[in-house]
Design brief:
EC 3.1.1.11, eleven-stranded parallel sheet, alpha/beta, disordered N terminus, 18% helix
């Protein structure tokens, strides 16, 4: 049970105050202490106190020490819960402050609750802070935003992010990641993920060129019911990523994906049961993707495509030699943009049997088995 709003105990026993401040999850601590107390009572019930009152004092002190030891182990095993609120009602006013305060190298999930607000900060989750989960209370009104872009001072694509994730096992829910540099600014990343085993559920990822950068070879990310928008190459990089039931929104004529899949990596970007939408007055000729690197791998499964998707489907980025090496695939595409008979000859239409191979278990299997376990 997570009572993230609770404050550390303030009554007299120092044990309670220390435990609550160490973990931030009072309910778990209380449960741990009750369990520990029951154990201690059974173990020490036969101690005789013939030297009362000194004997009783000694017995109570020993019981308290054991209680503290058991409760600490139980509480720390649950992971911490931190709260961010701009109005001061949480423990921290910025998300970066909460990330910095989170335990280093935690092996259990650390939950950071973010209350509604526009958080203008260039957020970094370093590799030393794995297993962080950022959970907003309202997706559309809990916004992490910045406006850096390539060419602004010494900034380039790799450093233009509003949010950078380097800690493995990261999760995000009910949040908006945004870069507001604008359509004429060039490369301006909203969310840069350079970590393995990350999931994003019910998030918005907003920007223009290069909105979502999935940057790390042989890393894996999972996106569920997210909204991702942009102009040019707005989903790009070299990782393996699965997009389930997402809306992919084009803001002008350009390309959705720019995959840089390594040749020894089985999967790149896999879209399952997604919707491709567009600003209809500005986007009337959009490709499903073009190859940033020669072995780009992109698959669309059972995806509904608007009429902004060009009939030929794909683009070779003026690199005819890449047509021999890319792995561009579709199965069960529908909607006005699914003009399968006119697709480029170097793309592939999967059979039903081939499409069934694109399970989460299989796509996210390497380098070791991983299936995202999303909390309820």
């Amino acid at each position: 049970m997570n009572l993230y709003w609770a404050r550390p105990f303030t009554h007299k026993p120092a044990t309670h105050r220390y435990l609550a401040s160490a973990n931030g999850n009072v309910a778990d601590i209380v449960c741990a202490e009750i369990a520990a107390l029951k154990f201690v009572q059974r173990a020490w019930g036969r101690i005789s106190c013939t030297c009362a009152p000194f004997g009783y004092l000694l017995k109570y002190s020993l019981l308290s020490l054991l209680l503290t030891w058991f409760a600490l182990g139980q509480a720390w095993g649950k992971g911490a819960t931190l709260v961010v609120a701009q109005d001061g009602s949480g423990q921290y006013r910025t998300v970066q402050e909460a990330v910095d305060a989170a335990p280093t190298n935690s092996v259990t999930p650390v939950l950071i609750i973010i209350r509604p607000g526009v958080y203008r900060e260039k957020l970094v989750v370093p590799a030393t802070k794995p297993n962080l989960v950022l959970r907003g209370e309202d997706r559309d009104h809990t916004v992490l935003t910045f406006d850096d872009h390539s060419g602004k001072g010494t900034i380039n694509t790799n450093t233009s992010h509003s949010v950078l994730i380097e800690g493995a096992g990261f999760g995000a829910e009910n949040l908006t990641f945004q870069n507001t540099a604008g359509r004429t600014a060039g490369q301006a990343v909203a969310l840069h993920v350079a970590a393995d085993r990350c999931y994003f559920r019910n998030c918005r990822i907003l920007g223009d060129q290069d909105t979502l950068f999935l940057a790390k070879n042989h890393s894996r990310q999972y996106f569920l019911r997210c909204f991702i928008e942009g102009t040019t190459d707005f989903i790009f990089g070299s990782s393996t990523a699965v997009f389930d039931h997402c809306t992919i929104h084009s803001k002008k004529n350009s390309h959705i994906t720019a995959a840089a899949t390594p040749p020894d990596q089985a999967y790149g970007f896999v879209f399952r049961s997604c919707r491709l939408t567009a600003d209809t007055t500005l986007a009337t000729d959009v490709s499903l993707g073009r190859p940033w690197q020669p072995y780009a791998q992109v698959t669309y499964l059972r995806t509904r495509m608007g009429n902004h998707i060009r009939a030929t489907g794909w683009d070779n980025w003026k690199k005819p030699e890449s047509e021999k090496t890319v792995r561009y695939e579709e199965y069960g595409s529908s909607g006005p943009g699914a003009k399968m008979a006119q697709r480029v000859a170097w793309s592939r239409q999967l059979t039903a049997q081939q499409a069934r191979q694109y399970t989460l278990k299989r796509v996210l299997a390497a380098p070791e088995p991983w299936l995202p376990k999303l909390p309820h």
